[in-house]
Amino acid sequence: xxxxxxxxxxxxxxxxxxxxxxxxxxxxxxxxxxxxxxxxxxxxxxxxxxxxxxxxxxxxxxxxxxxxxxxxxxxxxxxxxxxxxxxxxxxxxxxxxxxxxxxxxxxxxxxxxxxxxxxxxxxxxxxxxxxxxxxxxxxxxxxxxxxxxxxxxxxxxxxxxxxxxxxxxxxxxxxxxxxxxxxxxxxxxxxxxxxxxxxxxxxxxxxxxxxxxxxxxxxxxxxxxxxxxxxxxxxxxxxxxxxxxxxxxxxxxxxxxxxxxxxxxxxxxxxx
Length: 272
Description:
Strand order of the largest sheet: 1-2-8-3-6-9
CATH architecture of the largest domain: Sandwich
Distance between the termini: 18 Å
Helix content: 25-40%
Shape: globular
Strand content: 15-25%
CATH topology of the largest domain: Jelly Rolls
């Protein structure tokens, strides 16, 4: 049995998923230009965020930032449940954005029930409220959760396992995403072979180094276009030698043309 409640808005989205017998292959490594708050209710799984992996515990809250690769890694077919809030920068205040920069990636809430109750309340109220009122409730709930996070830093959860040896490679790519980057460039930078780079990304990130670089560049370009830059200038800013190559990759990864694209579009056919 699989139960999914999904309420989509352009800038804010609430999802609830429960699967009695989840299938690991349904959960892909993916990336988007949104924040994601994932509240884990049950299951037996790890969660990968970029170059680190964390073993999930009941009532954990994960904060995934825009542009971070992430994936659920099921360890068994035990029932899996989670709530998710996805939201974009433009729905946040400057103070909220600043607070999120300093927030932890994982909080083990345990018996701290306020945030869990916030998510449960959204699920219970769906169908009772009008669409407009429910959108207001989602927005208000997000504000409450973000405010609460400011005051529960002591609930930060350790336990992240570093996916070495790609930690420094991934950091380098993210810090130099506007520059020309290939597996060859990364190999020379870290004095390893190209095959070592490619094998490490596929083994630890479940995607190729080329995919990692290209999708990071597309998301960076998307953010530039959303800020008002032309698609052609965004392509140049990301070191694309050919606009046609940029256009093709952009449309493939985001399902939309870059010209005039002023909103973030999550990569299609992915799940958290």
